[in-house]
Amino acid sequence: MSEEYGNDYVTLTDENGNELELEHLDTLEYNGNTYFAFIPAEMQLEESYELIIMKSEEENGEEILVTLDDEDELDEMFQIFSERLEETFEDEMPEE
């Protein structure tokens, strides 16, 4: 997959040439890897959503984003990102 970074949005192109626009929510360095959390760009944070978690790998000297094939790794990263994002949005909510 190739990626284009701009503001908080990324357009990914898969191996079939299909493009998907995602909103970048968070980046995390963990166990020597860089992980990214996204949601589809057309979604609102208030809506129910499934995080899209990818990690950075180097291929032929170029940085690419790849999906996580290891279920344990995916589960662990989902838990970490969910907690981080929950804390972030709780801090941004105005107190009544």
UniProtKB/TrEMBL annotation:
- Could you tell me which Pfam families the record lists for this protein? DUF1292
What is the top-level taxon of the source organism?
Answer: Bacteria
This protein's name = DUF1292 domain-containing protein
**UniProt source species:** Candidatus Ventrousia excrementavium
